[in-house]
């Protein structure tokens, strides 16, 4: 069970404030949907949770511990693109995590130990519906298959926190619905905490147990560098009424880009 | 409907004929030029006829030399390929290690990248005299010339390729628990090997250039040495087959490396949508 604490986090690039005063307490086993207009700093926020970047001010803690200064296995990630290794087959991609954990020197297992890991990887592939694609290379797979693969690859090392940056943004609606089902099932099974950035409000409401919207509160051109975006809406989706949710949806609809009609 | 030029493609056979055509034209031009000159002066050495060329080929490629007892072409080829192979092997290994180090490790890059950038600007032929002085006139100086000529390019090219890897891949590997060393072994190296082989293919031309230059200046055996030796007698009948042979060797090496790439790295072809 993983608790995430975010306190007074600011992020500046070359003196320009992108995010400011971000405060968030995330209970264990939450699914946090993050929405906001393009360029407001959602990906930046995820990159800080990943330790790909450090906050300029403030801190982030997981279970009371400061974030390590670099990405670690406790935080898994699925990007919109480039999430899987093009030179490995689907099965090898999923086996990557267990292999490097067990073979510090060569990063690769042989014989019966390799077989055991590949079996584990095959099971993980099956759980995202890719049973038959084990020996395909990512370039031979569709976008939806690649994202399933990326999810299986990230989950096999059992991260405490999973970070998703528009993971389904490039998928068509039918496949997206499948992915939502998959995601909800995996969320229930694993007990992990998920942060998901999305431009699709319906997706945000459907998957999340909590909805967080980022936005700038000062938008005049001369104010852009001096003031950043911050959390403008924080809604516990699992405890709010249908009316609250409907109002939030309407309120956000014209702010979040790429909203499908 | 008439198609745009950019959409018009020859058939497989058509492409083959089109590819052969320039060669046939060149051969025909040579034959005409040769017979015109020979008609004027039967002792002309500049464009020897095909029968003279054939005689020379038999002499250098199939008859033991009277003085040394070896067949010249094969002895020259063995010597040159040994130098070339050694030089390219060392340059490739150096290119791989330094390229990946510079591309992936900020500390190594800070220390080595400027040095590599400067060294790659030194004209290799300008340091050849130094190499002869330092390493002597034997094999070593020729191998070193090839290394100096080719390695900096390979290092810089590979560094650029490593830096082009999507950042997401490196982050992803770290979130899966990989150490720096494991990132090198499992993510960077396997993706760099085919690119390295491609760069080595591009380096074949310069490598031959440096080899033949070094052999022309100081050697006792070698393809470049032979060409420059017989030049004194205007022996075009030997030079032309040697040039054709060198071209063939270079072409074969290029083809072999390309085949190796396709063979070893099936995911590359997958990436091109095959
Ligand atoms: N490495 C960087 N250097 C300088 N500025 C950056 C950097 N990364 C992001 N920014 C700036 O920070 C702001 C937020 O970028 P970010 O990618 O987090 O936005 P986003 O909310 O994810 O947008 P989108 O919805 O389009 O993905 C942008 O104005 C961007 O120009
Ligand atoms: Mg983004």
How would you describe this structure in keywords?
heterodimer; A: 261 residues; alpha/beta; Rossmann fold; six-stranded mixed beta sheet; four-stranded antiparallel beta sheet; globular; B: 274 residues; mainly alpha; MetI-like fold; 0% strand; binds adenosine-5'-triphosphate; binds magnesium ion
Task: Give an account of the 3D structure.
The complex is a heterodimer of chains A (261) and B (274). With 261 residues, chain A is of the alpha/beta class. Chain A folds into two domains: 4-74 and 159-258, Rossmann fold (3-Layer(aba) Sandwich), CATH 3.40.50.300; 87-157, no CATH class. Chain A is built from seven helices and ten strands. Chain A has helices at 42-49, 90-102, 111-127, 143-155, 173-190, 201-207, 242-253, and strands at 4-13, 16-26, 31-35, 57-62, 65-66, 75-78, 161-165, 193-197, 210-216, 229-236. Chain A has a six-stranded mixed sheet, with helices on both faces. Chain A has a four-stranded antiparallel sheet with strand order 2-1-4-5, with helices on one face. In chain A, strand 7, helix 5 (173-190) and strand 8 form a beta-alpha-beta unit. Chain B has one domain (59-265): MetI-like (MetI-like fold). In chain B, helix 3 runs parallel beside helix 6 (139-164), helix 3 packs across helix 9 (223-230) and helix 9 runs antiparallel to helix 10. The longest helix of chain B has 38 residues, at 180-217. The mean pLDDT of chain B is 92. The chains are: A alpha/beta (261), B mainly alpha (274). Chain A binds chain B through residues 50, 52, 70-73, 75-77, 79, 81-89, 96-97, 99-101, 104-108, 137, 139-140, 153-154, 157, 159, and chain B through 166, 168-169, 171-179, 181-182, 185-187, 190-191, 265-267, 270-273. Magnesium ion is lined by residues 42-43, 165 of chain A.
């Amino acid at each position: 069970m993983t608790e995430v604490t975010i306190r007074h986090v600011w992020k500046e690039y070359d003196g320009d404030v992108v995010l400011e005063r971000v405060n968030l307490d995330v209970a264990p086993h939450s699914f946090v949907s993050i929405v906001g207009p393009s360029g407001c700093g959602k990906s930046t926020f995820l990159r800080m949770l990943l330790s790909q970047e450090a906050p300029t001010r403030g801190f982030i803690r997981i279970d009371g511990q400061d974030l390590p200064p670099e990405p670690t296995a406790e935080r898994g990630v699925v990007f919109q693109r480039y999430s899987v290794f093009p030179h490995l087959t689907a099965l090898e991609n999923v086996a990557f995590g267990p292999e490097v954990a067990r073979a510090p020197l060569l990063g690769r297992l042989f014989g019966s130990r390799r077989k055991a890991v590949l079996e584990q990887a095959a099971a993980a592939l099956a759980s995202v519906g890719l049973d038959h694609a084990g020996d395909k290379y990512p370039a031979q797979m569709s976008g939806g298959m690649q994202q399933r693969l990326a999810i299986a690859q990230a989950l096999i090392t059992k991260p405490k926190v999973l970070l998703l940056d528009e993971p389904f943004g490039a998928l068509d609606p039918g496949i997206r619905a499948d992915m939502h089902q998959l995601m909800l099932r995996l969320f229930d099974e694993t007990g992990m905490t998920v942060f998901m950035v999305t431009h699709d409000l319906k997706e945000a409401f459907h998957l999340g147990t909590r909805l967080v919207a980022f936005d700038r509160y000062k938008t005049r051109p001369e104010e852009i560098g001096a003031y950043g975006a911050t959390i403008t809406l924080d809604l516990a989706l699992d405890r709010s009424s249908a009316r609250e949710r409907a109002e939030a949806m309407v309120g956000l609809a014209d702010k979040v880009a790429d909203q499908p009609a | 409907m008439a198609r745009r030029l950019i959409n018009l493609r020859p058939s497989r056979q058509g492409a083959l004929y089109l590819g052969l055509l320039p060669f046939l034209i060149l051969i025909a031009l040579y034959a005409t030029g040769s017979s015109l000159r020979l008609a004027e002066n039967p002792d002309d050495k500049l464009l020897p006829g095909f029968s003279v060329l054939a005689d020379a080929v038999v002499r250098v490629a199939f008859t033991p030399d009277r003085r040394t007892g070896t067949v010249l072409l094969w002895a020259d080829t063995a010597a040159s390929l040994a130098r070339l192979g050694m030089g390219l092997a060392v340059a490739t290994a150096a290119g791989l290690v330094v390229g990946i180090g510079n591309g992936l490790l900020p500390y190594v890059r800070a220390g080595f990248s400027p040095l590599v950038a400067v060294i790659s600007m030194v004209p290799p032929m300008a340091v050849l005299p130094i190499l002869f002085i330092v390493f002597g006139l034997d094999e070593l100086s020729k191998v070193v010339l090839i290394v100096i000529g080719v390695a900096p390019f390979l290092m810089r090219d590979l560094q650029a390729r490593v830096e082009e890897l999507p950042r997401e891949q490196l982050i992803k590997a770290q979130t899966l628990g990989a150490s720096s060393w494991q990132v090198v072994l499992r993510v960077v190296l396997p993706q760099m090997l085919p690119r390295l082989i491609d760069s080595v293919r591009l380096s074949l031309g310069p490598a031959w250039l440096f080899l033949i230059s070094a052999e022309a200046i100081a050697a006792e055996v070698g393809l470049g040495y032979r060409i420059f030796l017989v030049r004194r007698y205007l022996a075009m009948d030997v030079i032309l087959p040697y040039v054709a042979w060198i071209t063939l060797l270079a072409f074969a090496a290029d083809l072999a490396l390309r085949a190796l790439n396709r063979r070893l790295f099936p995911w590359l072809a997958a990436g091109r949508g095959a």
